[in-house]
Specification:
The structure holds two protein chains of two kinds. By secondary structure, chain A is an alpha/beta fold. Chain A is 40% helix and 8% strand. In chain A, helix 3 runs parallel beside helix 14. The chains are: A alpha/beta, B alpha/beta.
Chain lengths: 437, 325
């Protein structure tokens, strides 16, 4: 039982001997000495790490991030990027916006581009299949991620296999892009298992239903990564509603104070069930909240997979170099209902839906890759076939799947059942035996 | 042998656990440089460095959530929530997350977290510093809840809790913090899930834990002097799970049972003990199981707590009532 735990925490090496490392938070910049707290990219007044600042691994150098990266505009004093004009690499028609700092298209080779678009197409296909399976009574509920494929695949593609993801419940795209079998996700929605199955194997925490609670787990896990001096980054995936939760405040604050390697990815999909963003906060943007925590905040077009990938890569590189946590707001839109039990026609109109449909992330990326000569009919056929196979696989595995054993519930409460749990298991076994006979 | 306070015993248990396993980390509000408001963590930050014993922001939910993440990572966190009443902001992380993550992971991830909470009343504190939070935790599947009443048990049960692969809520009876016991540390007492007979007797069984054990012992001595009664006192020690076999063995002998706790009466641990006793030892009972407890009011202002708490008088009334049945 403890194997995963041990494997997870297997790297016991600390960076230095106890007592020789700077106290937590010592590197934190002072809030009051920075007139330009809200600074644009490349603004040197924002103050990057300064010589003599102790770094988390005991060194004295701040993180080195390439020109145009976070290091140019951020550091121990928070800076905001993309607030006025969220970073966007591809226009909705797929043409490059000319953003060349960093030179985004050059970050990826043709194969990586094809993989990302394929993952997005696959996500949308499996997502639709899961909605259908719910309608057919095979799933108890489902929360569609329709419209958020770029935000999710872009972040996952920027992560490495050894990095860790702490998701909520609308992250099908992130999960499949990390190699999680969507059947394990579907079985949670079927009501067979809490948390899903097959996630930990892909360095992904079980699915968290309480909004924002996962942010603290990510921060704590990242603290462990820092104590281990391991080359891993933790990604907490949350939404615009979660940023109103106390747990997310506590997570951002603690992650900042302890300078842990954690990226907080906020998919701002505009709606928390029926409550729009303007009811969640008076903050000008969600990225602005980073200022108060003393960490960098970035805002980017989450329907632009290249912008998302580039900014997430930037942030992860910054974090790996010891820069501490980053808050990344991805502007996107939940085109489906909150869940299959929701009726969004009660709180939003068609005009809004049409406006966002025109910003479709898959169409945009496909147009761009076609124009670049990276994607053609052959690739489209192949991607459709991969997506159809995945959907068929999910349908075959989920439809009328046998339920797990109810008496197995007693094995999961503790590492070993108590005597009282064994008594209760025996009671259930008697009831089941009677029902069978 | 030397006279060791409960604070010193808990401090020694933390130190020895940290010495023995570098995955053990201690954190909470004021536990670092200050050594905790009760000095329970005194010297740990100096000895083990700020990476293994550190202060947190004022954020109880964050403290427990951080512990969960560290445990998933493979650490053995021992967070402190400064006072019982301040454990309530952490209830989502404790009840929904800490208690359920092992199950949610399909049994793949263990959560060896010990949440230490200085608990209960009797020390003249302002509001929210004298709560009895045990029922909230004991009612939640996935949490073990233990409560020592002596310095020796405090040491041994904390060592065992830290070694335990499951989450443990470790309630410290802070009114007993400065009581002393002649012991040699390190020591191991009975396993933490077992109740212990503190005083043998054939006439009435008193079941207690935490601060209430001393009250029960005093009442037992008084009952012997006043009425010649031989009262057996059981120190429950573990509130989840409850060592029902030990309680039943005693009640089968005495036929009479009184449960003593500070927590309000309704749905307290006493209710569970009474239910278990009547399920398992009904035909041995000579009288209904009674409870000598706090009242179903908010914990009172300090100047009224002596009246509110279950003292020797209230316990003796219950003993007399079950004896005269």
């Amino acid at each position: 039982m403890a194997e995963i735990s041990q494997r997870v925490g297997g790297n016991g090496a600390r960076s230095t001997e106890p007592g020789t490392v700077a106290h937590w938070g010592q590197r934190r910049g002072t809030l009051h000495d920075a007139d330009g707290l809200i600074a644009g990219p490349g603004d040197p007044s924002a103050g990057g790490p300064r010589p003599g600042d102790p770094c988390i691994d005991g060194g004295t150098q701040g993180p080195e991030v390439g020109a145009g990266g976070l290091g140019a505009g951020t550091g121990s004093n928070a800076a905001l990027r993309g607030v006025d004009q969220p970073l966007r690499v591809l226009s909705p028609d797929g043409s490059p916006t000319g953003a060349s700092d960093p030179p985004y298209p050059a970050l990826l080779g043709p194969e990586q581009h094809r993989q990302m678009l394929t993952d997005m197409i696959l996500t949308r296909r499996v997502d639709a299949e899961l909605v259908d399976l719910q309608r057919q009574g095979q799933l108890a509920l489902y929360a569609s991620c329709l419209g958020q494929e770029a935000a999710q695949v872009g972040v996952a593609a920027a992560m490495r296999a050894q990095d860790w993801l702490f998701p909520q419940y609308r992250e099908l795209g992130m999960l499949v892009a990390r190699g999680v079998d969507p059947v394990g996700v579907a079985m949670m929605w079927r009501g067979a298992y809490h948390g899903g199955r097959g996630l930990l194997e892909r360095h992904t925490s079980p699915i968290c239903i309480v909004v924002g609670a996962n942010a603290l787990h990510a921060a704590g896990f990242a603290l462990g990564v820092r104590l281990d001096a391991a080359d891993e980054v933790v990604v907490a995936s949350i939404g615009d509603g979660a940023l109103s939760e106390g747990d997310v405040h506590e997570a951002l604050n603690m992650a900042a104070v302890y300078e842990v390697p954690c990226l907080f990815v906020v998919q701002n999909n505009q709606w928390a069930i029926s409550v729009p963003g303007r009811v969640q906060t008076k903050s000008a943007t969600l990225a602005h909240k980073a200022v108060a925590y003393g960490i960098p905040g970035i805002r980017c077009d989450g329907n632009d997979v290249l912008a998302t990938y580039s900014v997430a890569s930037d942030a992860l590189r910054w974090i790996r170099a010891g820069g501490g946590p980053v808050l990344l707001e991805l502007l996107t839109y939940r085109r489906g209902a909150h869940t299959t039990a929701d009726d969004p026609t009660r709180y939003r109109g068609d005009a809004e839906l049409e406006r966002w449909a025109a910003l479709d992330p898959i169409d945009r990326y496909r147009r761009h890759l076609v124009a670049e000569g990276i994607w053609g009919e052959e690739e489209e056929r192949r991607a459709a076939s991969v997506a159809d196979e995945a959907a068929a696989h999910v349908r075959a595995e989920v439809c009328d799947a046998a339920d797990p054993s109810a008496t197995g519930l007693f094995d999961l409460v503790f590492t070993r059942p108590t005597k009282e749990l064994e008594r209760q298991r025996a009671q259930l076994e008697r009831e089941l035996a009677r029902r069978r006979s | 042998m030397s006279a060791v306070t409960m604070v010193a015993a808990i401090n020694a248990a933390l130190r020895d656990a940290m010495d023995g396993d570098d995955k053990v980390v201690v954190f909470g509000e004021d536990v670092g440089r200050l050594g905790g408001v009760f000095r329970v963590t005194d010297g740990l930050s100096d000895r083990f460095g700020p990476q293994r014993c550190f202060d947190t922001p004022l954020a109880e939910s964050g403290i427990v959530g951080l512990a969960i993440g560290l445990a998933i990572r493979g650490y053995r966190p021992v967070p402190e929530l400064q006072f019982d009443g301040f454990s309530y902001p952490a209830l989502d992380q404790a009840l929904n997350q800490l208690a359920k993550y092992h199950s949610r992971s399909g049994g793949l991830v263990d959560l060896p977290v010990v949440v230490r909470i200085p608990s209960f009343g009797g020390i003249g504190s302002p509001e929210h510093h004298s709560e009895s939070p045990e029922t909230h935790f004991a009612h939640t599947a996935g949490l073990k809840v233990v409560c020592p009443s002596t310095p020796g048990d405090a040491y041994s049960m904390l060592r065992e809790a830290i070694e335990c692969p499951d989450p443990v809520v470790y309630l410290e009876p802070k009114q007993r913090y400065w009581t002393r016991e002649e012991i040699d540390l390190p020591l191991r007492t009975e396993p933490m899930d077992q109740a212990v007979v503190r005083r043998a007797g054939d006439d009435v069984t008193l079941v207690a834990y935490g601060n209430a054990v001393a009250t029960a012992m005093a009442a037992a001595a008084e009952a012997e002097v006043q009425a010649g009664l031989a009262v057996e006192v059981i120190d429950l020690r573990s509130l989840a799970p409850i060592d029902v076999d030990a309680v039943v063995a005693s009640v089968e002998k005495t036929g009479r049972c009184v449960v003593v706790h500070e927590a309000p009466r309704t749905l307290g641990i006493g209710a569970e003990v009474a239910a278990l006793v009547q399920e398992r030892a009904f035909y041995h009972l000579e009288a209904p199981v009674l409870r000598a407890t706090g009242f179903d009011t908010p914990y009172p202002p300090a100047r009224l707590e002596r009246d509110w708490l279950p003292g020797v008088d209230r316990v003796l009334d219950a003993v007399q009532a079950v004896w005269e049945q």
